[in-house]
Design brief:
The complex is a heterodimer of chains A (486) and B (59).
Chain A: E1 9-14, E2 16-21, H1 29-43, E3 46-49, E4 54-57, E5 62-66, E6 70-74, H2 81-105, E7 109-115, E8 119-120, E9 126-127, E10 130-136, H3 140-153, H4 155-158, E11 162-163, E12 172-173, E13 181-186, E14 193-197, E15 209-213, H5 222-240, H6 254-262, E16 272-274, E17 277-279, H7 281-293, H8 305-321, H9 331-347, H10 354-375, H11 383-389, H12 403-406, H13 415-426, E18 434-435, E19 439-442, E20 447-450, E21 462-463, H14 469-472, H15 475-483
Parallel strand pairs in A: 3-18, 13-14
Antiparallel strand pairs in A: 1-6, 1-10, 2-7, 3-4, 4-5, 5-6, 8-9, 10-15, 11-12, 14-15, 16-17, 18-19, 19-20, 20-21
Helix pairs in contact in A: 1-2, 2-5, 3-5, 3-6, 3-7, 5-8, 7-8, 9-10
Chain B: H1 2-9, H2 17-41, H3 46-52
The chains are: A alpha+beta (486), B mainly alpha (59).
Chain lengths: 486, 59
């Protein structure tokens, strides 16, 4: 009998930075991103990572610079989606605070927009990631078949909302990232992206692997975030325990189905061919929900599964009744309502001759894209946060807990706690210590400790065998950090 | 099922008639607040904003 691995999950959030300043040379995006990283290095309780490309923080997360000048915060290993949303919000707040502090000391810098979205629609379009990682033990091929219908259909609640890429007239899409997902599996994470990355990097000891999903979007709604991660973790837990749920609803053409579901904000019009006949995304999701609920008493199910199933079922009921009834709870219906209102106001603003109408339509398109962008801005100028602080949204979950504490303390249990506590202990004590997901090296005292098991609760220092590999991955950034006195 | 009903009582979405009025009320409130939020957030020169916001692709 297969004994399932503990449910361990994490999310990597790539942010976009837009500095607003009249001095565009001094405050270029690249320069501002470097300032943010430097300030984080000076201010946060952290150790630099082994490769020198960033930091590991005392809350167990990693903060570094990813490709395309996108700062990234990777959450610590979490054991429930509720815990994970706490650390994602904590990451948002850390980055936003660093950006605000830079603005406070730079009079020429009007604002640094920290964007939590994943798409720039201009030109040919650009996207950056919000990747998910889940620990599993079975052969990956089984998991791909079990998970694919779930990943294609979950966008009914996990879509960020936005516009279809390349459309001359704004066309709403449930999931703008879907346009950048062109295959089920991919080796690359920067082009021809898949639902699932084939990157073989377990970050765990023998017997465990890491499922790496690259099709998801960064969400502002706590409910949507918990559903995105929690449902996927439960579907994976069943597959990892050997249950065949997803194959019963195997989709003949998954990427075509993803595109069809993304284009159907009614959630009622798009049917795709599955092993059980033609089904809507909601129907496929109900199939998975029923499969999970039928196994709630199985040992592979975590204690939070009943609560998650409750939220999952209510959300599917709500979507089935009227997706716009969830406009205070999920990202995409929220955006669709705001976009719809803006379009309605534009329609009543009058129209002139055909040339003026065309100009007006172009301006509307630009305003809608700006609105989409402004929705995702972290901090008090972001549309989502204005609405949230105004008390009109209904997306929060009490289980998310203390986000302020999560900025500095790691989640309890497992190696995230070990890592975070060691970082806090070594910070200021050892000038040269460095950290990774599975080890910490204290160069000054020639010792290292490893924790390959994500559930590890103890570790021991041993003599460090100097390895150039720790330092060699990012020589440019090592040099930069050194030049900044870090 | 008990859990689901309990959640509906605390304001989570459902399909029964008793919730429809509340959902409509929440949506109306969102529209009113949304209008103010959008007016406050938009720059007034979307074209310039979008150019300033051009991003490189990431992962």
């Amino acid at each position: 009998m297969i004994v399932s691995a503990p449910l361990i999950m994490g999310v990597e959030v790539e942010y976009a930075i837009t500095p607003l300043s009249t001095d565009v040379e001094t405050f270029s995006r690249e320069a501002v991103v470097r300032k943010i990283l430097a300030r984080g290095s000076a201010e946060l309780v952290a150790l630099r990572d082994h490769g020198g490309s960033g930091l590991f923080l005392s809350n167990g997360s990693r903060f570094y610079l990813d490709v395309g000048s996108h700062p990234e915060i990777s959450s610590p290993e979490c054991q429930s989606p509720f815990e994970l949303v706490r650390y994602l919000r904590a990451g948002d707040q850390i980055l936003q605070r660093l950006a605000r502090e830079i603005v406070d000391v730079e009079p020429e810098l009007q604002e640094i927009l920290v964007l939590a979205g994943n798409v720039d629609y201009l030109g040919g379009g650009a996207s950056w990631g919000c990747h998910e990682s889940y620990m599993y033990r079975r052969e990956a091929e089984d998991l791909v078949n079990e998970l694919t219908p779930h990943l294609v259909s979950r966008i009914v609640y996990s879509g960020a909302g936005g516009f279809r890429l390349g459309a001359s007239v704004p066309e709403f899409t449930i999931s703008p990232r879907a346009a950048f997902t062109t295959r089920v599996l991919s080796r690359s994470t920067t082009e021809s992206r898949g639902l699932i990355s084939m990157k073989n990097e377990s970050l765990a000891g023998t017997g465990s692997s890491r499922l790496h999903l690259i099709c998801g979007e960064n969400l502002r709604s706590e409910l949507a975030t918990v559903l995105k991660v929690g449902t996927t973790a439960l579907v994976l837990a069943l597959a990892d325990a050997g249950f065949k749920i997803g194959s019963a609803v195997a989709i003949r053409r998954p990427i075509v189905a993803l595109s069809a579901f993304a284009a159907d904000p009614s959630c009622k019009a798009a049917f795709v061919q599955t092993a059980r006949g033609r089904m809507r995304a909601i129907d496929i999701q109900r199939h998975y929900l029923e499969g999970v609920e039928a196994h709630l008493s199985h040992e592979c199910m975590p204690e939070w599964a009943p609560r998650l199933c409750s939220l999952w079922g209510e959300t599917l009921d709500g979507l089935d009744a009227d997706p716009m009834g969830l406009s205070t709870r999920l990202d995409w219906p929220m955006k669709r309502m705001l976009f719809g209102q803006h379009i309605a106001q534009w329609k009543t603003s009058g129209a002139g001759d055909p040339a003026q109408q065309m100009q007006s339509l172009i301006r509307l398109r630009e305003e809608l894209i700006e609105l989409d962008t402004r929705f995702s801005v972290l901090g008090e100028t972001g549309v989502f946060e204005i609405l949230d602080s105004g008390g009109v949204l209904n997306h929060r979950l009490a289980e998310a807990g203390d986000i302020a504490e999560a900025q500095v303390k790691p989640p309890p249990g497992g190696r995230a706690q070990l890592r975070g506590e060691l970082i806090a202990a070594l910070h200021g004590e050892s000038e040269t210590a460095s950290c990774g997901w599975t080890s910490i090296v204290d160069w000054e005292h020639s010792r290292e400790t490893t924790f390959p098991d994500p559930m590890a609760t103890t570790c021991q220092w041993c003599s460090q065998k100097a390895s150039a590999a720790y330092r060699g991955e990012h020589p440019d950034l090592v040099a930069f950090l050194a030049s900044e006195g870090m | 099922m008990e859990d689901r009903n309990r959640q509906r009582e605390t304001g989570t979405p459902g399909t029964d008639d008793s919730n429809l009025g509340e959902i409509r009320s929440q949506a109306d409130e969102l529209l009113r607040a949304g209008d103010a939020a959008v007016q406050r957030a938009l720059s007034g020169d979307a074209s310039a904003f979008l150019q300033a916001n051009r991003q490189q692709g990431g992962q």
